[in-house]
Design brief:
homodimer, 340 residues, alpha/beta, 434 Repressor (Amino-terminal Domain), Rossmann fold, 3 domains, 6-stranded parallel beta sheet, 6-stranded mixed beta sheet, 12 strands, 42% helix, 16% strand, elongated, DNA-binding
Amino acid sequence: MATIKQVAKRANVSVGTVSNVLSDSPQVNPLLRARVLAAIRELDYHPDQVARSLKVRQTKMLGMIISDITNPFFPQLIRGAEDAALAHGYLLVTFNTDDRVEREKQALSVLRGRRVDGVLLIVAPAKGDNTHIKATMAAGVPIVCLDRLPHGIQVDSVSTDHIKGAQVCVRHLLSQGHRRIAMITGSMELQTAQDRLEGYKAALKEARLKIDPEMLREGDFRLEAGHRLTKDLLLQRVRPTALFVSNGMMALGAIKALEETQLSCPKDIAIAVFDDLPLAGVYRPYLTSVAQPTHEIGYKGAELLIQRVEGKMTSAKPVRILLEAELKIRESTTAKLISP
Amino acid sequence: MATIKQVAKRANVSVGTVSNVLSDSPQVNPLLRARVLAAIRELDYHPDQVARSLKVRQTKMLGMIISDITNPFFPQLIRGAEDAALAHGYLLVTFNTDDRVEREKQALSVLRGRRVDGVLLIVAPAKGDNTHIKATMAAGVPIVCLDRLPHGIQVDSVSTDHIKGAQVCVRHLLSQGHRRIAMITGSMELQTAQDRLEGYKAALKEARLKIDPEMLREGDFRLEAGHRLTKDLLLQRVRPTALFVSNGMMALGAIKALEETQLSCPKDIAIAVFDDLPLAGVYRPYLTSVAQPTHEIGYKGAELLIQRVEGKMTSAKPVRILLEAELKIRESTTAKLISP
DNA sequence: TTGAAAGCGCTAACAT
DNA sequence: ATGTTAGCGCTTTCAA
């Protein structure tokens, strides 16, 4: 690997001059510049960013901590963040935690050791265990939270307006004539799950319907739960005519349950789901869903983080960006009215 | 951010001693060690890996160049690589190229500047344009190719045995009594697409059937192509009774085409697909598919790369690891239908 | 405009 | 066993 020194020697100039042409400094003699450029090419010289980082005290690297890249929600998010990062000359380093706080701590520690300039964080569900996050911020590493907001911390964030998204979706179900609308929620430890439930309740309240606890089930965002709880709901004395599922994986479980019980969607029961699955518009039934602007969350999050990193965003209080979800109405809720 | 010097001062020892306890060097006086550890805790000291990297001439970072994380094939691959990297103390930096050679070059250049210790590469389709890859290897940066093999380069690689996987799959179709088996291939520029076709041909040859060009269509691994080409095939004078699709996205297009033509699978036509979609066993029809050991490819690839990086793998000639695909037989190719 | 040199935080070789 | 120090490759004063 060629060094700046070797380049300087070959071009017969000082390292300072090489450095100047690299950062295309205003005044360098064109002749020297040409010699330097030639030397760089001849030696296949790639400036050592490690050495540079040490000197300038910034790595131009961003950390990103997510739960599991294998979950279809995250790739878009990561891609968004990476696109923004790259556009600003930053590199993105990702870290999977599988939603375990221990691994989140480890990730933060490693990332701090690597001197990343900032981190994008999708917090793992942790009942108030956030000292590691606070410590990182205290050490001067900016953090922007994506999607979920950690409890008890003032921190920048970018997320979807889950309340409103859910509300709009349930409104849609109501507008289709449904009155007995069941909901399968996520784990109530998660803010996002709470918000989605809140939106559901708000929509019902608007319609002057009372919330029936029999129509509510708490799940955990996984397929099995959706499957089990849907069956459960279908065995009720009075069956719901519509089902609002709190995330995509559970909706798949719900569909499986319908198949097993020979019920058809939307004829026998309508289904709407928070989160758009990549294939929601490909497989039958095409699912009505609340699509989050996933790529945008990642993109905006990274941009905000970079602003903080570069000191261009100096608001003392945390910035909280809320993005709108988009209701995609598909066949799973659009059959003609069902009489209750 | 605390430095090693500050820690030394606070613990009343020399920086050398601090360095020793950090690398838990054999002999350090337990008393001093305790003092150092205390100082580290008090100062929330995280050793600067940037400085360390500069000194020891290795970053413990691996680059990974993929086409698009948003494509459902990659997350598992990345996760596998990351799991292996982390287990060995390496960090993974990913880079999306959208299959464009220009971006692949850029990625390689950036990664070299960052002084990654090695790179995992899923090559973009490039007709022989591989000087950037050769130059990187010549500069002493080990490369391991995943999934696809670049043309005209001797390089370590880990991939699925596409030929065999396709062959086994088509054999299965034959065993179900099919004789007119159509295939929608990927872009013939890609080695993987060629291999899958080769497996198809091999299976037919075994069965002493001749290859009918009318049963072959070249696609591009995207949904639209699958949709269009399937329709095309169904309009033939003699319709195929089975269809082997070269990847998951195109299979979805094929299913869409069936729906539109009111044909049912597998009653009217069987479908088998190379690549397992995340939801292949969830949505109907459950698709018979050739599942690649995706996580394992990533994992083994990273392990191999790390061996090269650490000089534990010194074989001069490239190592070429071929992993077996697994045929998952589901309802899309099995005679009797589960529901109408 | 260009060159010389200090110093970023760490490791490792050497001195004590 | 512990301390001292050179130097990794770069940027950035400061001098010439």
